[in-house]
Specification:
With 267 residues, the protein is α/β, with parallel strands linked by helices. The protein contains 7 helices and 10 strands. This is Dienelactone hydrolase.
Length: 267
């Protein structure tokens, strides 16, 4: 079922496990650092789950913004764990690398997306790590992504990575690969209407491709929401680097509720 909800326009861009120390959070959720690798690089992720829930349940991958694997991604994994999922905040750059300046963030993200074969290998390694957890139902894997991470999960769905559903927040829509023959993943895109990084043309191109394939997608944009609207640190980063970034509490809350309903119906 397809639902296109234009509230304006939008956005930007674009296994081996190691044991870490447990840190306890609210409501029995624990987070643990976890390492996994491809042939070329080791990645340092963070897995969150309810330590008192021993039933198999869906797993959700969380792909970070272009700044790299950070507290925002980890906190999202913890929030997903509170909802009953096992969530893995992935590390697409490798070795836990983070950018402290937009120039570095652009370089890191471009390095990943310009070599899509390598990007897919890194994403797949994270997915296999999540599937290997005893309390994860390996047949029910989804993903969320922010900004760059939203672009990553949309591209992974386009090439047929086995994901039941994905929710992309303030995602870039100019993707390195587009869907061609079919698209089996359910897709939810949640963008800001005031985001200058996504044009109406970007939206039309991607949703038009989905329409051609009769894909199960939903596109929602939030009035007055700018790029990075889910990140409470966006205002500081925007001011520091003169970027059009801003946190929007209302859009953050509404989009999270949409995501919850989406995964409830997907899994």
């Amino acid at each position: 079922m397809k639902r296109l909800l234009p509230l304006f326009a939008m956005l930007l861009f674009i296994v081996a496990c190691g044991q870490g120390e447990y840190t306890e959070n609210e409501s029995n959720v624990v987070g643990q650092e976890i390492s996994y690798s491809t042939d070329e690089i080791t990645m340092n992720g963070y897995i969150a789950q309810d330590e008192n829930n021993f039933e198999q349940r869906p797993g959700i991958l969380v792909v970070h913004e272009w700044w790299g694997h950070d507290a925002h991604a980890r906190q999202s994994a913890e929030k997903l764990a509170e909802l009953g999922y096992v969530a893995l905040a992935v590390d697409m750059y490798g070795n836990g690398k983070q950018a402290s300046h937009p120039d570095d963030a652009m370089k890191f993200s471009n390095n990943v997306m310009s070599n899509f074969e390598s990007a897919q290998a890194r994403f797949t390694a994270a997915m296999e790590t999540l599937k290997s957890q005893d309390n994860v139902d390996s047949t029910k894997i989804g993903a969320i992504g922010y900004c760059f991470g939203g672009s990553v999960i949309l591209a992974m769905a386009n090439v047929g990575v086995d994901l039941g559903g994905i929710a992309a927040f303030h995602a870039g829509l100019q993707l390195p690969v587009m869907p061609e023959d079919s698209l089996d993943t359910r897709i939810l895109i949640l963008n800001g209407a005031a985001d200058p990084f996504v044009t109406e043309e970007h939206v039309a191109t991607l949703t038009g491709a989905y329409e051609d394939l009769n894909a199960d997608y939903q596109y929602i944009s939030y009035e007055n929401a700018m790029h990075a609207y889910t990140n409470p640190g966006a205002d500081t980063l925007g001011q520091k680097f003169d970027l059009p970034l801003a946190y929007n509490a209302q859009a953050d809350s509404l989009s999270w509720e949409e995501m919850k309903d989406f995964f409830d119906t997907t899994f």
